[in-house]
């Protein structure tokens, strides 16, 4: 069971996506899944991510529906009680998910 589902929308993010996923690999103390929702990228970013990060879950959309539709599709697929939306150009620190889930648990209305 996962504590957190991380949803990353991607559209032609070959310049960023690999760094984003590498940073997520360094997370500690939290069981999480990564869901990448590809908005019909044409730059090879989806193929690169699938090759280098096979542990991620991938959803491929048939066209670029934009951020909102992509994250909503990812949220539908999420298995965890908490969902974090992360842009593909983000590089998180190694305690990001640990601190995020700790804050949520401290504040019952969060």
| Gap from first CA to last CA | 21 Å
* Total count of strands: 4
Strand content range: 15-25%
Structural class: alpha/beta
Largest sheet: 4 strands, parallel
- The dominant shape is globular
Radius of gyration over alpha carbons? 14 Å
Q: Mean pLDDT, rounded to whole units?
A: 96
The low-confidence runs, each spanning 5 or more residues with pLDDT under 50, are none
In order across it, which strands form the biggest sheet? 3-2-1-4
SSE run:
EHEHEHEH
Estimate the helix proportion, in percent.
25-40%
Q: How many H/I helical runs?
A: 4
Description:
Helix 2 (45-52) links the parallel strand 2 and strand 3. The chain has helices spanning 17-25, 45-52, 67-77, 96-106, and strands at 4-10, 32-38, 57-60, 82-85. The chain is built from 4 helices and 4 strands, in the order βαβαβαβα. It is globular and about 40 Å long. It is an alpha/beta fold. 28% of the residues are buried.
């Amino acid at each position: 069971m996962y504590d957190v589902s991380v949803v990353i929308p991607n559209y032609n993010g070959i310049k960023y996506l690999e760094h984003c996923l590498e940073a997520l690999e360094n997370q500690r103390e939290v069981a999480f899944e990564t869901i990448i929702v590809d908005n019909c990228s044409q730059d090879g970013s989806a193929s690169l991510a699938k090759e280098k990060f096979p542990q991620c879950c991938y959803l491929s959309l048939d066209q670029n529906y934009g951020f909102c539709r992509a994250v909503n599709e990812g949220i539908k697929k999420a298995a965890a009680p908490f969902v974090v939306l992360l842009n593909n150009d983000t590089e998180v620190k190694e305690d990001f998910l640990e601190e995020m889930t700790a804050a949520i648990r401290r504040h019952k209305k969060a």
